[in-house]
Design a protein that fits this description.
Radius of gyration: 21 Å
Number of strands: 15
Distance between the termini: 31 Å
CATH architecture of the largest domain: 2-Layer Sandwich
Oligomer: single chain
Largest sheet: 6 strands, mixed
Strand content: 15-25%
CATH class of the largest domain: Alpha Beta
Number of domains: 3
CATH topology of the largest domain: Nucleotidyltransferase, domain 5
Strand order of the largest sheet: 2-1-3-4-5-6
Amino acid sequence: MRKKIICFSERGRCIAEKLNREYEAHGMEPAECAPEGYSADDFVREGFKARSALIFVGAVGIAVRLISPYIKDKLSDSPVIVIDDAGTFVIPVLSGHAGGANKIAATVAGLIGAVPVITTSTDVNTAFSADVFAKENALGIADRAGIKKVSAKAIEGKRITLSIKDYPPDEPVDIIIADETDREYDLLLKPKMYTLGVGLRKGKDEGELSAFLLDVLGRAEITIDDIYAVSTIDIKEDEPAVKAFCDKYAIPLITFEASVLKRAKGDFTASSFVEDTVGVDNVCERSAVLAAGARGHLVLRKTSRDGMTAAIASRQA
């Protein structure tokens, strides 16, 4: 996930610089610093649009006022973290679980020698968190209202029951992990059953690629929440448009060398131009199937538009 940082004083600037030095020293990507005089409103607006992690060095109140017009959904809001001007505390303010703000705050605190201030109930009570469980296991949350019910039960110290392999369950449970259900439950978590293979010309616009991929998914009647991973050839791994799409929707990016793509099993749409350019006759279909695993198969073949290609594979047999 991309990280952006903004500060409002000289002390804040020193903390931001220290953080980025530590990021680099530990082999992590540094945060993009807002230049001096850059509009804080633009910083927030652009950050939420890209779903970047936003780090403020300053008062919590400043951050709260700036982000308030953009807060919409706990499962899709940008993670927001605040560091005080003395570099003493690091506070995740928004999207602590789904966006990973709590983990980012813990990392930042460790790097600059500060104290992470975590306030989410399940964390401070060391209780089970349904949304963290979903994120760590690549599961989509079908009925987000159930998160509160399950979390409340966990905080009270009550047992949380899940049904995963036994479906439908013999008795009511707290969480069902399945595609469909007609039994009683508090929360339904859905496996992300599709991979999205992508190919593109160098330097494609971020907005253009995003619009194309969302259109492809829409025509296949598959939502972005159903996507387990985006896949492509390794030489496209650093394409800004691909990285921006994955960052915005918090989807892992899986890449393959041309030699590996050639070994994908199946009937693929071959292109001599693509083979001459990147060393394999098809990128989107082959990478989608490989990323889907041993049972992967195409459900949407290569779709092309203006130097971009996409294909969808299912992870189910």
